[in-house]
């Protein structure tokens, strides 16, 4: 059994290269959602502390931009090595504050380390271009410069990866940052800040403010134009508020927002493969992922058999404290989340859905929700338009390809989508019609450090990861050089 050691987790704010208590005496109580116990009490930044962090980043910005890319790359590589060395220690901390099983927390650390490595390399290859004006007047030089101080706001579901995916390209390009992790999972980010400190990140280039006063802290930073770029991962509701606040000073925005991913299973699909891939797309991180399959669209000829097999697979899951041996499904982030899930399940059942497994909130300590499969879910059930963010798989039968595409696109979101078929022409045709930033063909796992992740419609703006992810942190500058 992994041991939880909180000794190396900082409990203060990281501002200007120092660990400071901040001006707010009310601490943040961090709880373990598996037990309800308070595991740590840490600094709770006031709006003034947030401003100090933004000012520290501004002070450090020019020197960071001027630092050779190779030096910044070395810091990322050092942090990469230190992160992997601390894997078990940090995984236990992440599990204790967020709930995911220990093995998944270890996996998230590998995934996050992958971003540090990827951008350590990508940062060495930032290049502009050069061209001749066809008029013969002169030459057109395009250079790339860091966008400047970036404000990074991250969610609780992947407390490390969502931060690493933003911090790595920022460091690679020379953008000083202020990071505001989610108040439910601040320990992982504080631990990462300490790793960067050990890796030699210059004072003020990485600042971390943990707070329960998110809106009071972030609003003034954005509205007073203290930063040049906001990179946010979280709900569409909050993303939209922040986008509005950024408009005043035309702050660059990169927004990774909510999803409502369809997973389409066509009539030629192999059912065993369908169960494996839907399970991966649904149950990774207990379903608490914006890329999680939210609606399982199954051809009507297979829907019953698929439901029976999926329920049999879900029966094999062990639900419990993520730090316990053999647990596959940890708790939901909090009790509110469990109650919201139950409401959505009850609403679907009232509309005619059948529960094949799960569907009932258990008694007792911890925020647990059982793996649940719902068959014959009506197309207008509330859960078809809202993010479930939990281990609930609703099966919606469809008639034909056109019907499947229509249901799939009938949402304001456009993040991930998945389809399963052995017909290549159909796979490409349907993939082209899906209103989504990402499509998984015959797979339930699409996250990859080398891929540009992001959405269309209400799912956001911009891309993170891969070659494109670095663009969010860079500006173009065009210089004209006359020929005479
Ligand atoms: P979720 O529903 O997944 O918790 P949120 O969008 O509420 O997603 O939270 C994502 C991040 O945004 C968290 O760090 C949270 O503290 C922060 N946040 C929430 N509300 C606001 C707000 N009004 N202004 C700034 N940040 C916010």
UniProtKB/TrEMBL annotation:
Keywords: Oxidoreductase. Residues 19-478 form the Aldehyde dehydrogenase domain. GO terms for biological process: gamma-aminobutyric acid catabolic process. One of its GO terms (molecular function) is succinate-semialdehyde dehydrogenase (NAD+) activity. Signal peptide: none annotated. PROSITE patterns: ALDEHYDE_DEHYDR_GLU (PS00687). It comes from the Bacteria. The keyword Oxidoreductase applies. The active site is at 256. Belongs to the aldehyde dehydrogenase family. This is NAD-dependent succinate-semialdehyde dehydrogenase. It comes from Pseudoclavibacter terrae. The lineage of its organism: Bacteria, Bacillati, Actinomycetota, Actinomycetes, Micrococcales.
């Amino acid at each position: 059994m992994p041991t939880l050691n909180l000794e190396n987790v900082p409990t203060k704010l990281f501002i200007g290269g120092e660990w400071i208590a901040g001006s707010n005496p009310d601490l943040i109580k961090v709880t373990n959602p598996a037990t309800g116990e308070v595991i740590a009490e840490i600094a709770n930044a006031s709006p003034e502390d947030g401003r100090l962090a933004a000012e520290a980043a501004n002070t450090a910005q020019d020197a960071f931009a001027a630092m050779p890319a190779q030096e910044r790359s070395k810091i990322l590589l050092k942090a990469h090595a230190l992160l992997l060395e601390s894997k078990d220690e940090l995984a236990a901390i992440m599990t204790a504050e967020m709930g995911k099983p220990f093995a998944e927390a270890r996996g998230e650390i590998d995934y996050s380390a992958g971003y540090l490595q990827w951008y350590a390399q990508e940062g060495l290859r930032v290049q502009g271009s050069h061209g001749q004006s066809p008029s013969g007047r002169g030459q057109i030089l395009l250079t790339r410069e860091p966008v400047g101080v970036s404000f990074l706001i991250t969610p609780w579901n992947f407390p490390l990866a969502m931060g690493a995916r933003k911090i790595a390209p920022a460091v690679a390009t020379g953008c000083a940052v202020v990071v505001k992790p989610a108040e439910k999972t601040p320990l992982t980010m504080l631990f990462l800040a300490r790793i960067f400190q050990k890796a030699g990140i210059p004072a003020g280039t990485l600042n971390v403010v943990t707070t329960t006063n998110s809106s009071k802290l972030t609003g003034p930073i954005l509205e007073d134009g203290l930063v040049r770029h906001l990179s946010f991962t979280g709900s569409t509701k909050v993303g939209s508020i922040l986008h509005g606040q950024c408009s005043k000073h035309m702050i660059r925005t990169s927004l990774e927002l909510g999803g409502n991913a369809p997973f389409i299973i066509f009539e030629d699909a192999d059912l065993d493969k369908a169960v494996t891939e839907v399970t991966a797309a649904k149950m990774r991180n207990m379903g608490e992922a914006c890329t999680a399959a939210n609606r399982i669209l199954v051809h009507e000829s297979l829907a019953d058999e698929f439901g029976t097999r999926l329920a049999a697979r879900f029966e094999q899951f062990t639900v419990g404290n993520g730090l316990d041996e053999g647990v596959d499904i940890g708790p939901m982030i909090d009790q509110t989340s469990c109650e919201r899930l139950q409401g959505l399940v009850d609403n679907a059942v009232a509309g005619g859905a059948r529960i094949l497994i799960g569907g009932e909130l258990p008694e007792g300590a911890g925020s647990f929700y059982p793996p649940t499969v719902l068959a014959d879910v009506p197309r207008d059930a509330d859960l078809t338009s809202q993010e479930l963010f939990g281990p609930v798989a609703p099966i919606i039968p469809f008639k034909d390809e056109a019907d499947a595409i229509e249901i799939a696109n009938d949402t304001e979101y456009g993040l991930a989508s998945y389809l399963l078929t052995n017909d290549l022409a159909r796979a490409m045709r349907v993939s082209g019609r899906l209103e989504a930033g990402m499509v998984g063909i015959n797979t339930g796992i699409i996250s990859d450090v080398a891929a540009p992740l992001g959405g269309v419609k209400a799912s956001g703006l911009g891309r993170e990861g891969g070659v494109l992810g670095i663009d969010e942190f860079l500006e173009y500058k065009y210089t004209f050089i006359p020929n005479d």
